[in-house]
């Protein structure tokens, strides 16, 4: 059994920001970055929740 891939915070933020832009569907982002769409939705939600603490 293989280990899960670990992504850096910078990579997660980059993908989440791309998702927030809304220029591409999540499915296309998932294909481009080699991720499952659910991961992108989770990272996007985490970015938005974290941003609410800054404002």
TrEMBL record:
Transmembrane segments: none annotated. It holds the Pfam family HTH_Tnp_1. One of its GO terms (molecular function) is sequence-specific DNA binding. GO terms for biological process: DNA transposition. This is Transposase.
